[in-house]
Amino acid sequence: MKSFRWKTIVTTAAIAGMGGLAIAAAPTQAASSAVGGHRVSNVQAHEALSPQQLSALPLTNRHLTRHEIANLAVVLNAYHVAEGNSLDVEAFVNSFTKDGVFDDKVAGATYQGKALGDVLNRMVSLFPDVHRELKSITVNDDEISIELAIQGTFKGALQTPAGTVKPTGGRVDVPTADFWYLRDGKVKRFDCYVGYSKMYSDMGVNLDWASAVGK
């Protein structure tokens, strides 16, 4: 398994833009997101989710207002357009407000405007079948918090300051926390916390602990 030093790991995370996994789509896109083994499909943003669709979601509170349900539809739609089998970069970028930002909190990187699309493309280039398994959803007015796992197959080469990590075909299953902040049906800010250590381990990359000893 390839070994990387601490600085390389942090830099690589920023380059890869791994946190850009769940960016919102334009309100007209249909949503389809697998949740706990069930698939919520054909959900139009700003339309009321059916009781059956809501019941399939791992919601922490099922007494949602119409406004909250509409916001939830936007977020579910976002996961759909970021999936490897339903990629829509244009919808992905247009879903944000003009000053909307995506913050990859773990990598310490911020993206805005056209760079949002670059993040999505980089992710799919590494994991063409990227998928998000939603585990817990909390909706509070214009704020939505989600615990999820980012899953996929490592099929694309990862360019790093230390060289190229060749794809292994290994499966990644990465614990992640997403925090969405919406305004008027669009994403004002999206904060993502990705478990990079687990992700790199799944990709065959180990942290070089020895390089940090004695410094």
In short:
This is SnoaL-like domain-containing protein. With 215 residues, the chain is α+β, with helices and mostly antiparallel strands.
- CATH topology type: Nuclear Transport Factor 2, Chain: A
Percent strand:
35-45%
The number of distinct β-strands equals 12
Q: How can the largest sheet be summarized?
A: 6 strands, mixed
Per CATH, the architecture is Roll
Number of domains: 1
Assigned CATH class: Alpha Beta
What would you call the quaternary organization? single chain
What is the CA-based Rg, rounded?
Answer: 17 Å
- Termini separation comes to 24 Å
The residue ranges in which pLDDT falls below 50 over 5 or more consecutive positions are 4-12, 18-46
Number of helices, counting only DSSP H or I runs of 4 residues or more? 6
Described by the principal axes of the CA atoms, the overall outline is globular
Main sheet: strand order:
5-4-11-10-7-6
Overall pLDDT score: 81
Signal peptide: 1-24
Domain SnoaL-like: 85-189
Protein name: SnoaL-like domain-containing protein
InterPro entries: NTF2-like_dom_sf, SnoaL-like
